[in-house]
Amino acid sequence: MKASVKAFRILSALFLLAFSVYALLDTFLIPRVYASVESPAAAAEESCRARTLSAAVGESEKEPQITENSYSDDSLSVEISSYRVEDTTVYVADIRIEDPESLRAAFSQNSYGRNITAVSSETAESVGAVLAVNGDNYGSRERGYVIRNGVLHRELAASDQEDLVIWSDGSFSIIREAEISARELLEQGAWQVFSFGPGLLEEGELLVDARDEVDRAKTSNPRTALGQIGEGHYVLVVSDGRSDESEGLSLYELAQFLQQLGVQTAYNLDGGGSSTMVFLGQVVNRPVGGRGSGQRAVTDIVYV
Q1: Which of 4, 144, 163, 213 has the fewest beta carbons closer than 10 A?
Q2: What torsion do the CA atoms of 98, 101, 104, 110 make, to the nearest 10 degrees?
């Protein structure tokens, strides 16, 4: 009898251990594809057709002007500058676009799901991005709104979650998920919704102070942020950190820096080892999230 009880306890413990291991693998490692999105090749083909049509009706298309740190054509200009802030190297991409929908997002491996990842430079190459940064890494969480390029993918709200909404007219808003549903945002014209945070600036005013920090993050950290200066005028910002050459920024220091650039609305995206900026296929900063290239595999990017 005692042997049977002992065996039952051992089997129960093994079952619980196996279930716990599976739950951890399912949460952090096992890929699950929930939906495929339009292939980059199809999007590129559609863009090519649009350019051909423009040429056919007599509209001129300027040949892109490219330097080591800038790009410009008829509808887009990007200029990258670097700064030293609080013993930290910060890269700022100043962006001006004609079409608000040129500010886009892409899922890694062309799929929406959990743990579907790739390094940012690979995803940027797959969509032909001029400039890209890592996004909100939505796939590492089960909740938080996900609207990408005008399509609603996840409407499960996260408790006390603050999101960035990019509207179809290119304007930015910071909202709380408890106050509005994802479907309502979509109906009102949301083009992108990112769920990481927190918001850094609104109407040019600071939304964080020296006490604020992302859960489990260091006070000084690599950072990625997205901001709007004015109509059609944006910045994508990445700071290095966790190295002898670059200490990293707090949220407050990042917000202050963006305020000095004249940014009106700004939002904090996934940072730390995820922080990566890619310009015309080249990694601009020094990521600390992975081996080899240093890039951490993430679930999404923001790009033009």
Answers
A1: 4
A2: -130
Residue type, 185: L
Radius of gyration (C-alpha) of the chain in whole angstroms: 21
DSSP letter (8 states) at residue 289: S
pTM: predicted TM-score of the whole model, two decimal places: 0.83
Per-residue pLDDT of 245-301, as tens digits, reads 999 999 999 999 999 999 999 999 999 999 999 999 999 999 997 766 689 999 999
Whole-angstrom CA distances from 186 to 166, 178, 191, 202, 252 are 11, 15, 7, 21, 31
Q: What is the DSSP letter of 101?
A: G
Structure tokens at 249: 């920024």
- Pairwise CA distance, residues 98 & 75, whole Å: 5
Cis peptide before 198 (omega within 30 of 0): yes
What are the backbone dihedrals phi and psi of residue 126, each rounded to the nearest 5 degrees, phi first? Answer: -65, -25
Q: Convert the pLDDT of each residue in 206-216 to its tens digit.
A: 999 877 766 54
Distance, CA of 89 to CA of 202 (rounded, Å): 24
Q: Among residues 147, 171, 148, 172, which one has the least CA distance to residue 157?
A: 147
